UniProtKB/TrEMBL annotation:
GO terms, molecular function: alpha,alpha-trehalose-phosphate synthase (UDP-forming) activity; trehalose-phosphatase activity
Source organism superkingdom: Bacteria
Protein name: Bifunctional alpha,alpha-trehalose-phosphate synthase (UDP-forming)/trehalose-phosphatase
Record family assignment: In the C-terminal section; belongs to the trehalose phosphatase family.
UniProt record, GO biological process: trehalose biosynthetic process
A cellular-component GO term for this protein: cytosol
Length: 483
């Protein structure tokens, strides 16, 4: 059996250059953690962009950078500033991201973006072609690299290729509006296995393949050029133990190591012990429904004024894609909404919304998850939504209420949460009231089911199931050829 090659837009390490020396710091994100079992030892290689454009890379440090990456099992794809503009900020985040999240009106169909996307996908494919050998297994990740499977297959049909999409695949009626729809489908069909978070995304993809390419589809297999391509759903989990253990350690060391952040949360609890904390955490992205959530919160406070001074909403938004105009507009809208609602409803003793626009260290995320009575997550569309799973994992005494949008992929696995339609303010106001008043036994009962499921189907199991399905596909293919 050959080696495994993982390929994603960004590498799972961050480069730091100081005084002519290079440090590659491993990332702690969900994907990097989940792939640990797949990306281990000298048997695997992770290919991706290092985060530095050619213009930002001092030529004399090229060799040192390659060496630092190699020590972490990584190799880089070189991209210039123009590539990043057209491929990442352009086609990936101004065409595909809005379209696949059903924001048709935000999707820009620019030929220049498309051409750069294609040429950058070719650069990624070339890096794989150069580094791969017969029998290798290649796992391609996400919407930035949808043309890579076919580009690799053309030159390396003797490898096994899997693709996983981390965002939704939209319904045929949305997908068909894309000018380069056939090319995207054909790019993906270079894979042996294509994975999605949910059965619905899988179904939408199969329907687009059937209707746009006229290919034969039987159950979850597509037949093309004497090949069978398997399509399946693999809902991504989290590193349950990491979140649960961090929350346990947080409790045990409570009096010794309290962060400034925790001290502020404690002060809040002490000064208003019967006030409920409602938490929401997202990247600042229009797909996450932050502005609607703020409007729904105002609606709730006006419909049920008895809860004024009795609840506080903490909005934590991580800066994201701030080069894209839609994100700048959204930032402005949220700043104004928070200002207006706080201005209108605050009292001497109470500010309804605490708003943080920043990335926080892991410890502070744990402070927030463990201190909040309710997590309120209202994406308008979300491939999965890992924050919902992380909140539940940190509830060591099993209390806490999760209110989750039906439009998040995670809602399919989290039926015991309070599921809402983020466009229905009346329902959300009533659900907030239900959450505030939910008896402890009911909270514990619901969260016991959720925790058991999340612990069992964690991110490592997710990665292994995908790899096993890909290997099984290859072994079946071999048996078929030798018969
Ligand atoms: P995202 O859209 O980024 O991921 P999500 O799945 O919720 O959304 O993951 C966000 C991650 O960032 C979480 O692990 C969270 O802890 C972390 N995070 C959030 N706010 C933070 C902050 N202020 N500081 C530090 N960390 C923060 C995409 C898709 C999702 C899909 C994932 C995985 O859009 O639908 O679930 O990929 O496939």
């Amino acid at each position: 059996m050959g080696k495994t090659i993982i390929i994603s837009n960004r590498l799972p390490v961050q480069l730091q250059i100081s005084n002519g020396s290079i440090n590659a710091i491993p990332s702690v994100g969900g994907l990097a953690t989940g792939m640990k079992s797949v990306h281990s030892g000298g048997e695997s290689l992770w290919i991706g962009w290092s985060g530095l454009t050619d213009e930002e890379t001092p030529p004399e440090l090229e060799g040192k950078i390659d060496q630092a990456l190699k020590e972490n099992g990584c190799a880089k794809v070189k991209l210039n500033a123009n590539d990043i503009d057209g491929f990442y900020y352009g086609f990936s985040n101004r065409t595909v991201w809005p379209l696949f999240h059903y924001f048709l009106e935000y999707s820009e169909f620019e030929l220049d973006f498309w051409e750069t996307y294609r040429s950058v996908n070719q650069k990624f494919a070339d890096a794989i072609i150069e580094k791969s050998e017969e029998g290798d297994t290649i796992w391609v990740h996400d919407y930035q690299l949808m043309l890579v499977p076919q580009m690799v297959r053309e030159k390396r049909p003797d490898t096994s290729i899997g693709f996983f999409l981390h965002i939704p695949f939209p319904s045929y009626e949305i997908f068909r509006t894309l000018p380069w729809r056939e090319e995207i489908l054909e790019g993906l069909l270079g894979s042996d296995l294509i994975g999605f978070h949910t059965y619905d995304y899988e179904r939408h993809f199969l329907s687009s393949v059937r209707r746009l390419l006229g290919l034969e589809v039987s159950f979850n297999e597509i037949y093309m050029d004497n090949r069978a391509i398997k399509v399946d759903s693999f809902p991504m989990g989290i590193d349950y133990k990491k979140f649960h253990d961090a929350a346990l350690a947080h409790e045990q060391n409570y009096n010794e190591e309290r962060s400034d952040f925790q001290l502020r949360l404690d002060h809040h609890k002490a000064s208003a012990p019967d006030t409920k904390l409602i938490l929401s955490i997202d990247r600042l992205d229009y797909s996450k429904g932050i502005a609607k959530r703020l409007n729904a919160f105002e609606y709730f406070l006006k419909k049920y004024p008895q809860y004024q001074e009795k609840v506080r909403l903490i909005i934590l938004a991580v800066p994201s894609r701030s080069n894209v105009p839609q994100y700048q507009l959204l930032k402005k809208e949220i700043d104004e909404l928070v200002g207006r609602i706080n201005g209108e409803l605050s009292t001497v003793n109470w500010t309804p919304i605490w708003y943080f626009y920043r990335s926080l260290p892991f410890e502070n995320l744990i402070d927030l998850y463990t201190s909040s009575d309710i997590a309120w997550l209202t994406p308008l569309r979300d491939g999965m939504n890992l924050v919902a799973k992380e909140y539940i994992a940190t509830r060591t005494d099993k209390t806490g209420v999760l209110i989750l949008s039906e439009m998040a992929g995670s809602a399919y696995e989290m039926n015991e949460a309070l599921l809402i339609n983020p466009n229905n303010f009346e329902e959300q106001a009533n659900t907030l009231q239900q959450a505030i008043n939910m008896p402890k036994e009911e909270q514990i009962n619901r969260n016991t089911f959720l925790q058991n499921r999340l612990e069992r189907y964690n991110v490592e199991v997710w990665a292994n199931e995908f790899m096993n399905a890909l290997n099984e596909k290859r072994d079946l293919g071999r048996a078929f050829v030798s018969e």
